[in-house]
Amino acid sequence: MSMQEKELAVTGGSLYYGTEDGRAVITRFNGMASEVRLPERIEGLPVTRIEKKAFLSRKNLRKVFLPDSMEEIGDWAFAYCGGLKEVRLPCREVRFGKAVFMECGCLERLTGTGAQAELLAAAVTALDAYYLLEPRAAGSGEWLAKWDNRLMAVMRTPETEGYSRQVLCGEEDYGSTDLSAYTSGRRRQKARLALLRLLFPEALSEDNRAFLEDYLRGHAKGSASGEEAWQVVLEEHGSDRAYYSLFAELGCISEENFDESFRDIGEEYPEMKAFFLRYKEERLGMKDFFEELEL
Fold first, then answer.
1. Is there a contact between 112 and 134 (Cβ–Cβ < 8 Å)?
2. What is the pLDDT along the chain (295 residues), one digit of tens a residue?
3. Percentage helix, strand, coil, to 5, in the chain?
4. Could you please report the per-residue DSSP string of 111-132?
5. Residue 172: how many CB atoms within 10 A of its CB?
């Protein structure tokens, strides 16, 4: 017998729920809220489950905070929430259904902060590896080894793989069917993953580190293989010093590409521009012609 559905008003919308066996179950959400906090209890009962498709296609949703009472998240619970950036998971073991975060391409953090949160999010977005959705294991040596195995499989996958399938599906469902745009998108994805792992290098093997660094250098400004690594840094992390300083320290900014890279920055990211000027003088040993005359 199905549960009787009831409504609970929350900021920016309504949560619908039912009760069974002394527990409350979230069945769906309706509203335009960008942030939703699920209560620990409803009608005095612990909130322990989110039903399948409960938050399906909520495009305005950016952050979700789940209570520590949560035990289960159903199939496709947050699927197609294209703007979702952060989900705070409970500090306990949680059972996840199928494709809980399918097509949540903007998801940046799952539970907590720092490396664990970002690597967890990447596991279910960029790596498409739901077997890594283990919040309590995340950050352990065993979990990182599994994460890296999947990472390197993705990094070594030919950038044309999957193109034929996309063409068959057509532009309407999957975007452009242009091969160069497709392969460029795959290189951007690889660059994002390489940057993320190098920013959080715990337990990263020397061989894998070298591979990731080489990939980024091979896709810096002016590279014949494509400039996607530089494009990701500039367009997605121009205000994040951790990213652009890492990029420079890896040798992705050189005497050969400095001027072109610097011109790309323009006036949009003044702190990045100032950093590159200091890097030019201190690390590359480059000075402008008129500076040389003053010496």
1. no
2. 467 899 999 999 999 999 999 999 999 999 999 999 999 999 999 999 999 999 999 999 999 999 999 999 999 999 999 999 999 998 788 999 999 999 999 999 998 656 889 999 999 999 999 999 998 889 899 999 999 999 999 999 998 887 776 656 654 444 556 888 889 999 999 999 999 999 999 999 999 999 999 999 999 999 999 999 999 999 999 999 999 999 999 999 999 999 999 999 999 999 999 999 999 988 877 655 434 434 4
3. 40, 15, 45
4. SSSHHHHHHHHHHHTTS--GGG
5. 6
